[in-house]
Specification:
Layout (H helix, E strand, L loop, with lengths): L2 E5 L2 H12 L7 H23 L12 E6 L4 E6 L6 H7 L8 H7 L4 H10 L11 E9 L6 E6 L4 E7 L5 E8 L9 H12 L6 E5 L2 E4 L16 H12 L7 E7 L5 E7 L16 E5 L2 E7 L11 E6 L8 H6 L1 H22 L2 H15 L2 H4 L4 H6 L4 E2 L8 H7 L7 E5 L3 H5 L5 H5 L5 E3 L7 H4 L2 E2 L2 E5 L23 H15 L5 E4 L8 E5 L6 H9 L10 E5 L4 H11 L4 H18 L7 H15 L1
Parallel strand pairs: 2-8, 12-14, 16-17, 16-19, 20-22
Antiparallel strand pairs: 1-6, 2-3, 3-7, 4-5, 4-7, 5-6, 8-9, 10-11, 11-14, 12-13, 15-17, 18-19, 21-22
Helix pairs in contact: 2-6, 17-19, 20-21
This protein binds adenosine-5'-diphosphate and magnesium ion.
Length: 617
C-alpha cells in the first residue's frame, strides 16, 4: 500500500511542540482526553444509527478497551464508535478545526501548567497523547465504509496515512510510550486514573490485562444517580471532564424537574471565565440527552445568552430519540426546559449571594455577562437586578441596588449612576462633586454593557435609574446648592457669560448652561438631552461607528467658581479680551480632558496654560 505524507497545520505543530517537550505534573490527562474522544465516537454512532440502523447491524454493545503491553511498551485505547474516514483523519488529527487555533497561540504563557490547561480548553485533546508517547498510531474505519486507514506520527511536523483493509469499525489508538511513562502499562495505575477521571463515562471501559477483562468504571450516567449517592469529587471530576478545566466548579446544580415538563439537569458555573466568553462566533450550549442518549452539544436554545457561561447537561424523555435538527428548532419542549433552568439558576444564585465574598468571585468574571439579562429578559429583570453588584462612590466595596436604596436620603428620588472607562477616572469626574457634596451616592459603571441596560431597565423599587447628567436630576431637593458652596454670579452676568462662550466656541458645543451640579470644578462637558453619553460615543468610535452618532455636547458652567466669576466680570466689563478668549478655550479643553477626550491642539493648550502661569506667578 502506498503511504502518504502530510504536514501538520502550523498551529498543530506549535501545540505539539508544547506537549512533546514539556514535563507535566498531570501526564495522566491524556487518558481522559482519549477516553472522552472514544466515548464521543460511540455517542455519535449511536445517534447516527437512530436514522440509519444498518450502521449497527453487526455491532455488539458499545465499549472502550484499554490494552497495556509491557514488553511492546505500548498502550492501546480502542473503541467501537463511529470511526474516521480518510478525509476526517487528515482534517481532525492534522488541523485544529476550531476557530480558536490562532486565539490559542495568543494565550500561551510559557508556564507549562497553564498552557496545558489551555490545551484542554481549546479542544486539542488528542494531541495530548504526545505527552507520553513518541509515536502514535491510529487505526480506524468509519461505520458504513468498506476500508480502514492507518494514521501514524511521531508528533514532529508530519504524519503518514495508508489504507488498511483489515481495520474493523471504530478506532484503535496505539501509544508507543516514552521510557519515562511506562507506568501506563501498569494495570493498577490505569485503574486508578480511570476511576479518577473517567468513572462517569456512560460506556463500559474495559481493562484487558494479564489475560483478564475487567470493567473499571461504574458506567452509569452520573446525573441519573440520586444526589445523595454522588460525592463532591465525582461532581468535580464530571465538571472537569465536561469543561476541560482543572479547577473546582463555583456552582453545582443537580436536580430533577417534574410536573409541567420532565427533565434532569446537571449544571455548573466555573470559577473563571473561559477565554472565549466574548467571541461572537463561539457557540455556548448545554449537552442535550434524550433518555441518556447523547443528542447534541450545539443546542443553543436551552440557555438565554446572559447565562452563556453555564455548562452542563440536560436529559429529557420528552423528545423522541431520533429527534432531528429541524425538530429541535421548532419544539416547544426546549423553551419550557429553558424557562425552568433560568428559574432554578436565579434561585440558586440568590442563595449564593448571601455569602458576599464568595458571590463576588462569580461576579468578577461573569457579572459583565449576567447584566445583559437586565435588558434581555424582561420577565426576570427584577430578580436579575437583585443579583447585580456595582461599584459606587460610597466606598471601595460593591453594592447591590437594594443596599443603595436603603442608604438613600429620604428626599432623594432617583438611583444615580455615571459611566466611564475605569473607576479611577470616574471617581475624579467633576460631575460627581455636586452629588458627593449632598451626600448622594452614585453608582460607578465601567463595563461597555452599562451603557445599554439602563435604557431598558429604567426603574428599581419605584426609583428611576438615572445618569447623573440627566436633565431631570433635581438634587437641590436633597440639599440646596447655597448650603454647600459660595454665592452665584448675578443673572445678568450669567447671560453675558453664556453669550460669550457661545460666540467663542461656536459649533464645538451644542449648548452652554449654568449648572448646580459642580462644586470644585469650573466646567464640565455632558451629552446633550436625548443624546448618547460621551462614554458611549467613544465606545462606538472604537468600533468604527463614529460619525453617524456624533452627539451634541452641552458645556456646563459653575457660576460659583472663582475662575468663572472673574471671567464673567471681565466679559461684562469688556476687559482683557485676548485673555478671556484663551481662558474659554482652556476651560473647554479641560472639560474634554476630564471626559477622557483628546486635547484638540495639545501644543496650543500648553502655550495658553503657560501664559496664565506666567502672569500668575
Ligand atoms: P475534540 O474532542 O475537542 O474535538 P480532540 O483533539 O480530542 O478535540 O479530537 C479531534 C477530533 O478527532 C474529534 O473531534 C473527532 O472528530 C476526532 N476523533 C478523535 N478521536 C476519535 C475517535 N476515537 N473516534 C472518532 N473520532 C475521533
Ligand atoms: Mg476530545
Amino acid at each position: 500500500m502506498t503511504q502518504e505524507k502530510h504536514a501538520f497545520q502550523a498551529e498543530v505543530s506549535q501545540v505539539l511542540d508544547i506537549v512533546v517537550n514539556a514535563l507535566y505534573s498531570h501526564s495522566e490527562i491524556f487518558l481522559r482526553e482519549l477516553i472522552s474522544n472514544a466515548s464521543d465516537a460511540c455517542d455519535k454512532l449511536r445517534y447516527a444509527a437512530l436514522t440509519h440502523p444498518d450502521l449497527m447491524k453487526e455491532h455488539g454493545s458499545f465499549e472502550i478497551k484499554l490494552i497495556p503491553n509491557k514488553s511492546e511498551k505500548t498502550l492501546s485505547v480502542i473503541d467501537n464508535g463511529i470511526g474516521m474516514n480518510k478525509e476526517e483523519l487528515i482534517e481532525d488529527l492534522g488541523t485544529i478545526a476550531k476557530s480558536g487555533s490562532a486565539e490559542f497561540a495568543k494565550h500561551l504563557t510559557g508556564d507549562a501548567k497553564k498552557d496545558l490547561a489551555l490545551i484542554g480548553q481549546f479542544g486539542v485533546g488528542f494531541y495530548s497523547a504526545f505527552m507520553v508517547a513518541d509515536k502514535v498510531e491510529v487505526l480506524t474505519r468509519k461505520a458504513g465504509d468498506k476500508t480502514g486507514w492507518l494514521w501514524c506520527s511521531s508528533g514532529k511536523g508530519e504524519f503518514t496515512i495508508e489504507e488498511e483493509s483489515k481495520a474493523v469499525v471504530g478506532t484503535k489508538i496505539t501509544l508507543h510510550l516514552k521510557k519515562d511513562f511506562m507506568e501506563y502499562t501498569d494495570p493498577m495505575r490505569l485503574r486508578y486514573v480511570i476511576r479518577q477521571y473517567s468513572d462517569h463515562i456512560s460506556i463500559p471501559i474495559i481493562l484487558d490485562a494479564d489475560g483478564k477483562n475487567e470493567t473499571i468504571n461504574s458506567a452509569s450516567a452520573l446525573w441519573t444517580r440520586p444526589k445523595s449517592e454522588i460525592t463532591e469529587e465525582q461532581y468535580r471530576d464530571f465538571y472537569r471532564h465536561l469543561t476541560h478545566n482543572f479547577d473546582e466548579p463555583w456552582l453545582t446544580l443537580h436536580y430533577t424537574a417534574e410536573g409541567v415538563i420532565e427533565y434532569r439537569a446537571l449544571l455548573f458555573i466555573p470559577q473563571k471565565a473561559p477565554f472565549d466568553l466574548f467571541q461572537p462566533d463561539k457557540k455556548h450550549a448545554l449537552n442535550l440527552y434524550v433518555n441518556r442518549v447523547f443528542i447534541s452539544d450545539e443546542v443553543t436554545d436551552l440557555l438565554p445568552h446572559y447565562f452563556r457561561f453555564v455548562r452542563g447537561i440536560i436529559d429529557t424523555s420528552e423528545l423522541p430519540l431520533n429527534v432531528s435538527r429541524e425538530m429541535l428548532q421548532h419544539t416547544p419542549v426546549l423553551a419550557k426546559i429553558k424557562k425552568g433552568i433560568v428559574h432554578r439558576l436565579l434561585d440558586e444564585l440568590k442563595k449564593k449571594a448571601t455569602d458576599k465574598e464568595n458571590y463576588e468571585v462569580f461576579w468578577r468574571d461573569f457579572g459583565i455577562v449576567f447584566k445583559e439579562g437586565l435588558y434581555e429578559d424582561q420577565e426576570n429583570a427584577k430578580k436579575i437586578a437583585d443579583l447585580c453588584l456595582f461599584s459606587s462612590t460610597k466606598d471601595d466595596k460593591l453594592t447591590s441596588f437594594a443596599d443603595y436604596v436603603a442608604r438613600m436620603p429620604k428626599e432623594q428620588k432617583n438611583i444615580y449612576y455615571l459611566t466611564g472607562d475605569d473607576l479611577a477616572t470616574l471617581k475624579n469626574n467633576p460631575q460627581l462633586e455636586g452629588f458627593t457634596a449632598r451626600g448622594i451616592e452614585v453608582l460607578l459603571l465601567t463595563d461597555p454593557i452599562d451603557e445599554f441596560w439602563p435604557q431598558m431597565f429604567t426603574e428599581y423599587d419605584g426609583k428611576k435609574i438615572r445618569p447623573i447628567t440627566h436633565p431631570d436630576v433635581d438634587i437641590d431637593k436633597v440639599k440646596a446648592i447655597e448650603e454647600i458652596t459660595g454665592e452665584s454670579i448675578e443673572e445678568n452676568l450669567q447671560t453675558v457669560l453664556i453669550a460669550k462662550f457661545k460666540e467663542v466656541l461656536g459649533k464645538e458645543v451644542n449648548d452652554i448652561k449654568i449648572t448646580n451640579r459642580l462644586n470644585k470644578s469650573p466646567v464640565a462637558l455632558v451629552a446633550g438631552e436625548g443624546q448618547m453619553s460621551i462614554h458611549l460615543e467613544r465606545l462606538m468610535k472604537q468600533h468604527g461607528q463614529a460619525q453617524a452618532f456624533a452627539s451634541n455636547r452641552t458645556l456646563e458652567l459653575n457660576p460659583r467658581h472663582p475662575v468663572i466669576k472673574k471671567l464673567a466680570t471681565a466679559i461684562f466689563e469688556k476687559k482683557e479680551e485676548a485673555k478671556v478668549l484663551d481662558a474659554i478655550w482652556v476651560l473647554y479643553d479641560q472639560a474634554r480632558a476630564i471626559e477622557g477626550e483628546p486635547l484638540r491642539d495639545p501644543a496650543g493648550f500648553i502655550a495658553k496654560v503657560n501664559n496664565f502661569l506666567e502672569s500668575g506667578l
